[in-house]
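Task: sequence design from structure.
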């Protein structure tokens, strides 16, 4: 009655790998808590970070969450590759089937939902208001709540590592495997509730950013004067708002099958598992473009800045983005060509999939023509962009191969598919994120990242990526099925060993990235940028100090061109130094932390059938949400004197930087 299904058997005493991991996590957690307590940081973290509604700090927290979860997701990848490299000649490797199946499911779920999504959402959160000349997002509290709901979902996934188990279904949890008959344990329930809780945060964040872009642009910034990154963010968030409710609905129907015995996706009583497959991919294919579109914007900003030229074909770039957004809803069935839909249906979705490659290819030519005859500076963001172009083209071509149904019948469910997907996601999304981090880090923190360690990370990633995934293309052509744990044919082993070595090289690249962060923080005074514009940027975020003040802009800028900051510099723009007024700002609140904490309790209780706790947590959640509506102290004013002092300090810093330069 009290603990539901939760008992001592839920703890992984029989798994030495998990026990060792648990010990490391506990010791690391205790050390972190001790340091925070030792340096009396609890009050600072609560007032300045956990309760903040400042879009910049929330964006940074999203990025930190994504990087932390990235370490967990990558650890799963390392374990899979080691297992596959070892499991030949009668060897069972070091992972049993039960554990291995959880690892490959958790790897996919974490990397998509809790690495890529938080990193991209953090990037959009930080940059969009700055690029459009706004002081914050439309709904600042909602922004805080969205972040903490995403974090609650991540905590639930991490809890499955030590209490119970995670799903063993693959990252999309197809029924009937995810039904109660085939998966009676808690793994699929962890999957459902972690994604439902995080999905609320993602959907609300999408609504927030759409409202911000549509309603809060600076005077003069029409839609066709928005930076390309803002355009791609708008399209990505339209896709979020349109597709994530589908994921919510399909997981709700799966929950009904598991909890109350309905038959939406069973093989009995009129149910149909194929309905689940259609619905999950109606969400899943737009999700791929939700991930890549904002990074297309990043590459546009980076290419233009480091080529010293206006982006070639701005209008065509915008139209290509909109066309991709629309077409991404017309291609979902190519994910299951082999499931008997028929020649006519397969032909339609094959053709639409090939068509979507046209606007994507147009973007690539836009970037190349921007570089043509430009004065290219090969700083780290530009190097990541060039690496993306080379890598993504290969991934795109293999995608077009898979869009041909007869070829897909041969390659579907093989390691070729895994190589293609990672070719696009790593070459596009991750390389784009690394370009963005190196590009906008000085804006966020006021100093550049160390270039030497950045180059180590770059080359390890590029070389390691091809070592890790080129062998998978070969194995896919050889007919090796994905998600296999052991192999009989010894001719496969050398390819898996090469892939494992590649993962090791990537691991060095990841380590070098964190060393780069640490070295840069230690040497921040040497790497300091006082100008706010270290790259000679073109868009509006470079018009403010680094890091920007709480209010972003002391006076709202007036826009005349899509490259707003470049145009302002060309016009001889003079920064206002007096005549400031008090600025209206939103107040911090702890409601987001409390509401998401209660949602976490409800999710955990539902996973373990603790009905009393689930009901109590749900009513507490509703009651606190209602209580929060009576909180009328939601704003304050930054006094004009404070704004004047901040801007005076900026004036002195600019003068000192000019004297040095």
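Answer:
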């Amino acid at each position: 009655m009290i603990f539901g299904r939760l008992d001592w058997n839920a703890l992984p005493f029989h798994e030495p790998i998990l026990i060792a991991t648990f010990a490391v996590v506990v010791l690391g957690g205790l050390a972190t808590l001790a340091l925070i307590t030792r340096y009396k940081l609890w009050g600072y973290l609560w007032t300045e970070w956990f309760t903040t509604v400042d879009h910049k700090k929330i964006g940074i927290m999203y990025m930190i969450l994504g990087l932390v979860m990235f370490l967990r997701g990558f650890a799963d990848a390392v374990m899979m590759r080691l297992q596959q490299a070892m499991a030949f000649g009668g060897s069972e490797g070091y992972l049993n089937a039960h554990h291995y199946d959880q690892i490959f499911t958790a790897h996919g779920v974490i990397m998509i939902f809790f690495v890529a999504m938080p990193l991209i959402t953090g990037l959009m959160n930080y940059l969009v208001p700055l690029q459009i000349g706004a002081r914050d997002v439309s709904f600042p509290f909602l922004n805080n709540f969205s972040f903490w709901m995403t974090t609650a979902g991540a905590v639930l996934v991490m809890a499955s590592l030590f209490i119970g188990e995670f799903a063993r279904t693959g990252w999309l949890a197809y029924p009937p495997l995810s039904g109660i008959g085939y998966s009676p344990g808690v793994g699929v329930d962890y999957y459902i509730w972690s994604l439902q809780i995080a999905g609320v945060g993602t959907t609300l964040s999408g609504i927030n950013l759409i409202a911000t872009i549509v309603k809060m642009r600076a005077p003069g910034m029409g839609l066709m004067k928005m930076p390309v990154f803002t355009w791609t963010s708008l399209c990505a968030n339209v896709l979020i708002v349109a597709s994530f409710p589908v994921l919510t609905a399909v997981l709700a129907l799966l929950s009904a099958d598991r909890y109350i015995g309905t038959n939406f996706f069973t093989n009995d009583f009129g149910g149909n598992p194929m309905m689940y497959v259609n619905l999950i991919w109606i969400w899943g294919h737009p999700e791929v473009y939700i991930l890549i579109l904002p990074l297309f914007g990043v590459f546009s900003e980076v290419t233009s800045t480091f080529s010293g030229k206006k982006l070639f074909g701005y209008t065509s770039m915008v139209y290509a983005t909109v066309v991709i957004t629309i077409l991404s809803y017309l291609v979902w069935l190519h994910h299951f060509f082999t499931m008997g839909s028929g020649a006519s249906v397969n032909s339609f979705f094959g053709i639409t999939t090939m068509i979507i490659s046209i606007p994507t290819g147009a973007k690539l030519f836009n970037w190349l023509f921007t570089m043509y005859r430009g004065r290219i500076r090969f700083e780290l963001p530009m190097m990541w962009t060039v690496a993306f172009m080379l890598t993504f083209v290969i991934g795109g071509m293999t995608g077009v191969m898979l869009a041909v149904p007869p070829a897909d019948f041969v390659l579907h469910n093989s390691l070729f598919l895994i190589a293609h997907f990672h070719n696009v996601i790593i070459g596009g999304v991750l390389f784009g994120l690394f370009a963005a981090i190196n590009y906008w880090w000085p804006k966020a923190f006021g100093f550049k990242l160390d270039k030497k360690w950045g180059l180590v990370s770059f080359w390890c990633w590029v070389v390691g990526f091809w070592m890790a995934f080129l062998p998978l293309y070969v194995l896919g052509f050889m007919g090796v099925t994905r998600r296999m744990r052991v192999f009989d044919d010894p001719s496969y082993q050398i390819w898996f060993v090469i892939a494992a070595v590649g993962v090791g090289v990537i691991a060095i690249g990841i380590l070098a990235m964190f060393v780069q962060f640490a070295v840069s923080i230690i040497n921040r005074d040497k790497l300091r940028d006082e100008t706010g514009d270290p790259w000679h940027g073109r868009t509006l975020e470079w018009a403010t100090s680094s890091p920007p003040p709480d209010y972003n802009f002391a006076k709202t800028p007036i826009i005349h061109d899509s490259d707003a900051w470049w145009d302002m510099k060309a016009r001889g723009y003079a920064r206002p130094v007096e005549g400031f007024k008090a600025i209206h700002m939103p107040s911090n609140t702890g409601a987001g932390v409390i509401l998401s904490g209660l949602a976490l309790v409800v999710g955990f209780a539902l996973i373990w059938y603790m009905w009393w706790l689930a009901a109590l947590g749900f009513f507490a959640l509703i009651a606190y949400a209602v209580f929060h509506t009576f909180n009328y102290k939601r704003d304050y004013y930054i006094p004009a004197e404070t704004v004047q002092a901040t801007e005076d300090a900026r004036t002195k810093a600019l003068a000192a930087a000019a004297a040095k330069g």
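Residues 97-131 form the longest helix (35 residues).
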